Amino acid sequence: MTEKDTYKTITKPSAEVLFKEKNSKFFGYVFPVKTEEDVKIHLENLKKQHHSARHWCYAYQLGILENQFQFRVNDDGEPNNSAGMPIYGQIQSFEVTNVLIVVVRYFGGVKLGVGGLITAYKTTAQMALEHSKIVTKTINQEIELKFEYKDMNKVMRVIKEKNLKIVRQILELTCTIIISVRLKNLNSVLEAFEPIFGVELKILND
């Protein structure tokens, strides 16, 4: 089975969306995030922007490989699993990652019940994602090549033939080139460099 080497995400925040139900207002937002610190910053900004709101419920997912996904949901005072999980369900439904969805609620005086809340949070999250530009990106692996300057032509020939992206390079008597390789092409690229005697290959971890 070939390992999946693409993922879906967003590159810029969504437009604000608004869902109304029985006088309650639900504002929805999607943000691109890569760390928990990113999440914290967006939440702090929204709490300042909507300082008189009652709830700031959210869900996020980080990571680009399925077996390394990290996610968190927060009901922020709403009944258990009535807000964070319905929001996270939309992240799963749209198959996006490295995203934070926040739904800000202004209570309108009429209780919606757990079923009503689930529908409201799910709908707002869905609307926010529908107003986001979702892009597909490839999962790439960086490889470090170390070799003597005399082998430069052989190394560059493989880079050109395989159409590889050079991330950075130090060209001296001993050269270092870091290339970015799409995950599914990793083995064939490693094999292409193997016949060049004296080239050291190292797979870099993030």
From TrEMBL:
Entry's Gene3D superfamilies? Impact, N-terminal domain (3.30.230.30)
Q: Name one GO biological process term.
A: regulation of translational initiation
Q: Which residues form a coiled coil?
A: none
A single Gene Ontology CC term:
cytoplasm
* Xref: Pfam families: Impact_N
Q: Which domain of life is it from?
A: Bacteria
- Start and end of every Impact N-terminal domain? 22-129
Its family remark reads:
Belongs to the IMPACT family.
Give the protein name, as stated in the record.
YigZ family protein
Q: What is the lineage of its organism?
A: Bacteria, Pseudomonadati, Bacteroidota, Flavobacteriia, Flavobacteriales
